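ok so I'm stuck.
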Amino acid sequence: MPTNHHKQRENSAQTLIRARLVGLEGQFWLRFDANRCLTHLEPMETEIPLEFQENILDIAGDLLSLGGVDLQINGGLGLAFPEVTQTDLPRLQEICDYLWGQGIDAFCPTIVTTSLENIRRSLAVFAKLWGDPKRNTAKILGIHLEGPFLNYEKRGAHPAQHLQPLTLKNLQQIIGEFAPMIKIITLAPELDPSHKCVEYLRSLGIVVSLGHSLATETEANQAFARGATMITHAFNAMPSLHHREAGLLGAAMVNPDVYCGLIADGQHVNPTMLEIFLRAAKQPFLVSDALAPIGLPDGVYPWDDRQITVTHATARLDNGTLSGTTLPLFAGVKNLVRWGICDLEKAIALGTVAPRKALGMATWTTGKPINLLRWQGVDGTVEFSRL
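replied:
not stuck anymore, here's the structure
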């Protein structure tokens, strides 16, 4: 629920003092106008003008961050994004509201491999909400298409019957008029050795993420050179690191221009490997990869024409294949702190600053409305509230 401070700042200008900001060094004062637009951001050593000294909130050295950005989430409250229809618009708004309550400012609804008909129907539904200016709800940044251009051998839980060859014709057939709304496409680069598809997607302004792939280090680097800038859920659905073949994962980790998505639930990647990865990778960021039952209790749920069993927030198919989680993005932040892998500020940055950088989004920028989270960590526990 919004705090009194949040309500106050919506209706009048406010100055925050002694705030530590995730991603910046030192303490700052910030000035917001009555529309929650950040008008001033200055080090505490800078004098606060007299006219800004009314309605002051002392943050007392706590960490403030922007809201979370989740670039890979497959559904929510029981609704799978590849299955949405026009009648689901109210439910989609409920999901946006739920994610806002989980600290998420914006997200990329992820449509996994399914039929062409389902993909395009889902895109048409999301077009109704994309760019909606509503306040106090999570915004839809654009769609993440995870598939259908994946390597059969690394398809994971994606249905084999709907995988497609990676060709310009197939891409254009799926994207069509929805190009402006598609933010990310996950594909296996080895399916198109010419990498013309990567170049085509970049020409449309779509971020190319490599995943569900058997790409070698050489193949990955070729795709990066043509414009791919991301990998999807590091370690999962790709070969592990090997001392004689770094592969897609190794190539991505050492490339400062490539952002590496990571699921920090402790199931998709072992905590020790998480620590090794975060020490080595140049540009890591967190994703939830949450499935439709996020926000619901453990149990058995439908998943396309199959079913998944969720136990302790981990989802698996009947054959045991790991298919996702039902934990929200900031559960990963809390895990990294609880496991002693990251300090609080670095962990928060992985879910707030890093995904914004991956999409070229601004962070601490004056002249625009921003939403703030206030973080506190005591004895290994991590809590946040909206300001």
